[in-house]
Amino acid sequence: MKILVPVKRVVDYNVKVRVKPDQTGVDLANVKMSMNPFCEIAVEEAIRMKEKGLAEEIVVISIGPAGAQETIRTALAMGADRGIHVTTDAAVEPLAVAKILEKVVGEEKPDIVLLGKQAIDDDTNATGQMLAALLGWPQGTFASKVEKADGSLKVTREVDGGLQTVAIALPAIVTTDLRLNEPRYASLPNIMKAKRKPIDAKTPEDYGVDLSPRLEVLKVAEPPKRQGGVKVESVSELVSKLKNEAGVL
Ligand code: AMP
To answer: What is the pLDDT of residues 48-105, one digit of tens each?
Structure first.
């Protein structure tokens, strides 16, 4: 089996983001960037499948600016075999990403495309589903467990009411949820080895995909500041505040 893992470079999850003064987006100047956490989980799962002898090759792909190459190297250091970097400085929406991935799937012919359930920058949670629709492949989204059966996958999905298990025929799309696994750290020897693993350099034009945006961001704003708490003397005072000040009773 061959597994394709799309990985996105995003603002590190520990960074407290700042909104640009003109409210057009988030300020990315001098901000630490890392692999999207859900993509790390996807890379880890692909490596575990390879370690179990279920997969032979893991190809990672990232669509983004020059820095995305670092993200691909991180995945190679974790254990992926080779990378594809589709270089663009444009903001790429999920539909454009899915269209590029559709073309890459046509060339690479993977058995599984393993994506994160969402990228923590735009929180769109759309790329995997759009790719499944474009390819006409079955999808197992929000996976907390993936098991291989003959010619199919058994995917346990995290849904609102609990866990749902589905069987999907290969080739298939899987998107990862938080509890699927705990990604490994790359060891120093593997970081060194990853420097010699190949990364193909591509552009969106190579795939003939139009990146022009379909969405218009009207405004990006900070969440309202949290108000400080107050201590109350009695239950009746609490009830009165909830009723008259908070308006929740
Ligand atoms: P999203 O639909 O944007 O929330 O992203 C879901 C998943 O799609 C991510 O976890 C990645 O696996 C993949 N993805 C989204 N954008 C990109 C990108 N620019 N390059 C590679 N993979 C991406």
So the answer is: 999 999 999 999 999 999 999 999 999 999 999 999 999 999 999 999 999 999 999 9
122 Cβ inside 6 Å of ligand 1:
yes
Q: Find out whether the beta carbon of 118 lies less than 6 Å from any atom of ligand 1.
A: yes
This model's pTM is above 0.70 = yes
Structure confidence at residue 120 (pLDDT): 96
Q: What domains can be seen in the chain, in order of their start residue?
A: 2-222 (3.40.50.620)
- Using a 6 Å cutoff on CB, does residue 119 contact ligand 1? yes
Residue to mutate (ligand 1; options 123, 127, 175; most atoms within 8 A of CB):
127
Q: Helices (H) and strands (E) in the chain — how many of each?
A: 6, 11
Minimal CA–CA distance to 122: which of 26, 231, 233?
26
Using an 8 Å Cβ cutoff, are 199 and 69 in contact?
Answer: yes
